[in-house]
Amino acid sequence: MREEREVLIHVRRGAEFLITHRAPEGGGYWHVIAGGVDPGEAWQAAALRELREETRLAAETIEPLGEFTYTPETWELEAPRRRLGVTVHVRAFLVDVEHGWEPELNEEHDEYRWLPREEAAELLYWPEPAALLRSLP
Fold it and tell me: Model confidence over 54-85: pLDDT tens digits?
């Protein structure tokens, strides 16, 4: 079985968390900032790159949160790089931003919201990011 690597990043602003809505071409669901790790790329470097690409946030530090593995759902296998028999290993991170900071979303997203922890977790499509969010101190 082949394994892919991805990162996901929870962005916190005070007591609120950023959730983003994937554009319809990307599935049309609520998620956090996330993306693939390029070959040879370090996990933390990938997380910082995804933050820059998807929100224009140039963070310098990021806190590891945990990791998990999942098997893509059938509809996800339509993505060009996905094939049957793939598992995805994910490392999650947390970054805090200053009050007043707003993301500049790229084309992967069509909306965003700042929400309290539980409201954000309730909207997230995937259970693993929601569980990580709920586990934060």
Answer: 999 999 889 999 999 887 766 555 555 545 56
Neighbours of 124 (CB within 10 A): 20
Cβ atoms of 132 and 10 closer than 8 Å: yes
Measured in whole angstroms, the distance separating CA 14 from the mean position of its chain's CA atoms is: 19
**Main-chain dihedrals φ then ψ at residue 26, nearest 5 degrees:** -100, 5
Per-residue pLDDT tens for 92-123? Answer: 999 999 999 999 999 999 999 999 999 999 99
**CA 70 to the chain's CA centroid:** 14
Report strand pairing: 33-36 vs 2-13: antiparallel
Could you tell me the pTM of the whole model?
A: 0.87
User: Pairing state of beta strands 33-36 and 30-31?
Assistant: unpaired
Backbone angles phi, psi at 13, to 5 degrees: -125, 95
Contact 15, 116 (CB under 8 A): yes
For residue 119, give the H/E element and its range.
Answer: helix 117-123
The DSSP bridge partners found for residue 133 are none
